[in-house]
């Protein structure tokens, strides 16, 4: 499936939401490989623009994280050298140590519509997974009522895009995946009692998934260190591929 094909757009537009991200004016250093065309700016930016047109109350506090890996070798996104080749130079769309695509939004780039370039072998491609990230008011936790509200927002966004009838046929979002820092614990407080849900004893971050409806309405969740990420676990995994295009 090519990046943002009709089927991918239909689902991702119902599920993805993002604020504009400022790109860093870094230099793309490509060694031993030639950059090739994989897409154009407007094709990708349309998704972000579609989200920004949704009702503000439905997308408040939610953002899109587009996570990519080079396939079939499952290499980090940074290894592809993915960038915009603008009239003023290259704008990198990746950061070392992260698989998140950093995509700048601006009217100037929309008008220019620069190509997205990457160093991909003929049989390689970038597989992108779409995640809906949440920005909790507190970095180290949130209330169950807040979690329930976020999931409701996600369902509203689906309805905003595909309409009530189609949204009725789609599974609702019911889970949150929390990324805990190394050597931190996730605790829940219910009826004044604390208990540990997950203890990340590893030297690296780890994920833990919760279903807010499994806990008391007044429950609160707290991490002993700031949460690295909170995302809505989508009922279906939405992905799209970015491949080499013919010159």
Oligomer: single chain
The secondary-structure element order is HEHHEEEEHEEEHEEEEEEE
Which residues form runs of ≥5 with pLDDT under 50? 5-11, 13-25, 27-32, 162-171
What would the average pLDDT be, to the nearest integer? Answer: 82
Tell me the Rg in angstroms.
Answer: 19 Å
Strand content: 25-35%
Please provide the count of β strands.
Answer: 15
Major β-sheet, in short?
7 strands, antiparallel
Helix share, percent = 10-25%
- What's the total helix number? 5
The coarse silhouette is globular
Count of discrete structural domains: 1
State the end-to-end CA separation: 19 Å
Class from secondary-structure proportions: alpha+beta
Summary, kept brief:
This protein is of the alpha+beta class and 247 residues long.
Features:
alpha+beta, seven-stranded antiparallel beta sheet, DUF2987 domain-containing protein, DUF2987, about 250 residues, signal, about 25% helix
Give an overview in words.
Residues 1-25 form the signal peptide. By secondary structure, the protein is α+β, with helices and mostly antiparallel strands. The protein has one domain (35-243). The chain is built from five helices and 15 strands. It has helices at residues 6-15, 41-52, 56-59, 107-112, 144-169; strands at residues 36-40, 62-71, 75-76, 83-86, 89-92, 115-118, 125-134, 141-143, 175-180, 184-190, 193-200, 206-210, 220-223, 229-233, 239-243. Helix 1 (6-15) runs antiparallel to helix 5. The longest helix is centred in the middle third of the chain and has 26 residues, at 144-169.
């Amino acid at each position: 499936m090519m990046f943002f094909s009709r089927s991918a757009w239909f689902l991702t537009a119902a599920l993805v939401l993002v604020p504009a991200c400022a790109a860093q004016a870094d230099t793309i250093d490509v060694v031993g490989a030639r950059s090739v065309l994989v897409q154009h700016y407007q094709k990708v930016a349309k998704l972000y623009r579609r989200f920004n047109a949704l009702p503000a109350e439905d997308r408040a506090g939610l953002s899109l994280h587009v996570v990519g890996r080079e396939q079939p070798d499952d290499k980090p996104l940074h290894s592809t050298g993915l960038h915009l080749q603008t009239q003023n130079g290259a704008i990198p769309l990746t950061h070392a140590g992260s698989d998140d695509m950093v995509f700048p939004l601006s009217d100037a780039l929309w008008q220019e519509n620069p190509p997205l370039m990457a160093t991909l072998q003929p049989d390689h491609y970038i597989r992108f997974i779409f995640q809906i990230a949440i920005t909790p008011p507190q970095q180290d936790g949130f209330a169950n009522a807040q979690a329930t509200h976020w999931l409701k927002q996600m369902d509203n966004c689906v309805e905003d895009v595909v309409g009530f009838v189609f949204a009725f046929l789609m599974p609702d979002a019911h889970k949150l995946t929390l990324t805990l820092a190394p050597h931190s614990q996730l605790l829940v407080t219910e009826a004044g009692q604390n208990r540990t849900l997950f203890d990340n004893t590893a030297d690296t971050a780890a994920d833990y998934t919760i279903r807010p409806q499994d806990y008391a309405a007044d429950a609160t969740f707290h991490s002993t260190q700031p949460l690295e990420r909170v995302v809505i676990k989508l009922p279906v995994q939405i992905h799209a591929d970015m491949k080499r295009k013919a010159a």
